[in-house]
Amino acid sequence: MSLNIVTIINNNIVTAADTAVSTEIKGEKYRVHNESKKIFHIDDMVVYLSGNADLSKIIIDEFIKCKDHSIENLKRIIVSWCDKFMEFPVIKVHYSKGKDFLIGSLVSKFENGLAVMYEISQEHNFEIRRMEISKNQTAVYAIGVNSEVASKYLDKLIYDGVPVLQAYQDTYNKLSSSEIGGQLELFIMDGKSIKKIPNYSIKEKDSLKWRREMPYRNTERFKHMMLDANITGSSLTLRDNGGVMKMFPLIGLWAGAENFADAPFSVDLQGSLIGRKAKFIGPKGDILIDTEAGYIDMDKLDIINVGKLVAEMLEVNTILADGGYVNNLTVNRLKTIGKDVEVGQYIDYIDIQDNFIKFITARVSTKTQAKDSRDRLLYWQNGEKRILTTENTGIIAYEYGFNDADIKEKRVLTFEESGDAATPVEYIGTGDNTGNGRVVNRKRNGGYKSEYKSSNYGFERSIDLNDDGISVRSDKGKFSAISKEFEFLAQEGSLKMGISGGSIFELTPTGAKMDIKGDLDIKATGTVTINGQTIKLN
Fold first, then answer.
1. Please, are residues 15 and 50 in contact by the beta-carbon 8 Å criterion?
2. Digit-coded pLDDT (tens) for 428-470
């Protein structure tokens, strides 16, 4: 069952319903799925139908296919299928307790310019109840789970000035439960047209419990059972000292409860098996799977063709004789921490996530015993500290915490841009608070540049390798080259040395040129020899 709320305001009809489907097991409600459509635009009206999910789908499918979309015909179809549905002993006993609502329908439309609603429900023995709302009158009516609370709450929100669509969202968010949730489907009618509003995701409670099933997996089976079955009472019930086991050819086999849905063990006619506790034993008597203890002994099983594996701990002991490795390892994040340290000490590790590889040194701020996702304490299996276990071996596995200010990224490998434009970049050093004082290596298209900007001031010192040549730069800094021997040759070109805005010395294949700004002072401890075909002195 779900919730349908209809509001008549400003001569418009606003009608909405959620998409949740639930079930009850031993007095506790569970959500089954969120894919049940319960409100339909048919001709000049909007029809809400809900209750038993399979029965509702059978009824609305037949009504939509009919040429006769009258309220009377809708009632006839509802009554006909409900009578067939209640012919089954188990179903009749279940719904006769009055705990569950079998079926209910609320139709909204305009007649002669007035907003009208028709209700057909089990609660009123499927009689057609017509409600007409006068023009310029505001009214809120609800049917289904918490209908009285819902209508009062929505009416108050509208009275307080909350916009109608927001009021609907707030109401369904407040009343969300195992029976109300999923998507909010809403229609607005003005007597001339019917407008569908985009679905809104209802905010679910953290306490929501699930027992997932495929939507409408039993609908066709129930339909054929109601149309074709003509043998009743052909069943088997075994009892002994309070225990019970039943087999009904139209339902399945179950044990441990009077009703199929409440049984801790059951098998339906499609072969779907439910068991609260199970142990799967291998040919040698070993336990392969124990559902009560919650483990699978992978040492005695082989897994093949795994599409996706999600694990808290992954250990590869030996794959090949010459070493153990993981082939083609793909993870969302990988951290490498290889030693135990105390609070206040530093630890070096590598952090890999997304398109970053970070070499980090960090000071440990907290050190506590690690826990798994089920809050169980973790220990190392032995002194090698390779395999984690929840068994208390006395060798504690620790979890370290760091303050953001104490985490220093000493080296980072990443990409700038993406796709064909992606550029590999490497940052080395933590730098200063201006972003300078570290090395940046960047491999761009057509070149590679290694750059350092001086601390505080950001003066560039770089080597730039590109398709046209090599550029070396030391802004406002000294360039020093020390060598036992120094050889610098320019092939098929010129060699030029000079001072910006000052003297220049240039060698070319045809000669040499000196352009001296200022005095020229030549000193030698030996002979100075000048040879040339012509020597000109001016």
1. no
2. 999 888 889 999 999 999 999 999 999 988 999 999 999 999 9
**Total residues belonging to the chain:** 538
What pTM was computed for the model?
A: 0.45
The domain made up of 3-201 is a member of CATH 3.20.20.80: no
Nearest CA-CA partner of 380 in 390, 371, 372, 366? 390
Record the tokens describing residue 492, joined without a space. 């098929």
How does DSSP assign 488-518, residue by residue? ---TTS-EEEE-TTS-EEEEETTEEEEE-SS
Nearest CA to 165 out of 5, 358, 400 is that of: 5
DSSP labels for 153-164?
HHHHHHHTT--H
Query: CA–CA distance from 378 to each of 369, 393, 460 (Å)?
Result: 7, 9, 50
CB-based contacts of 225, cutoff 8 Å, min separation 6: 88, 250
DSSP letter string, 445-469: TTEEEEEEE-TTT--EEEEEEETTE
Render pLDDT for 288-334 as a digit per residue (tens, 0 to 9). Answer: 888 888 888 877 776 766 766 666 665 544 433 444 444 455 555 55
| DSSP-derived secondary structure for 169-183 | HHHHHHH-SSSS-SE
Q: Cα separations (Å) of 273 from 265, 269, 291, 417, 537? A: 7, 10, 14, 51, 111
The domain limits of the chain are 3-201, 231-276
CA-closest candidate to residue 347, choices 356, 357, 337: 337
Give DSSP secondary structure letters for 1-38: --EEEEEEETTEEEEEE---EEEEETTEEEEEES----
Phi, psi of 395 (to 5 degrees): -105, 100
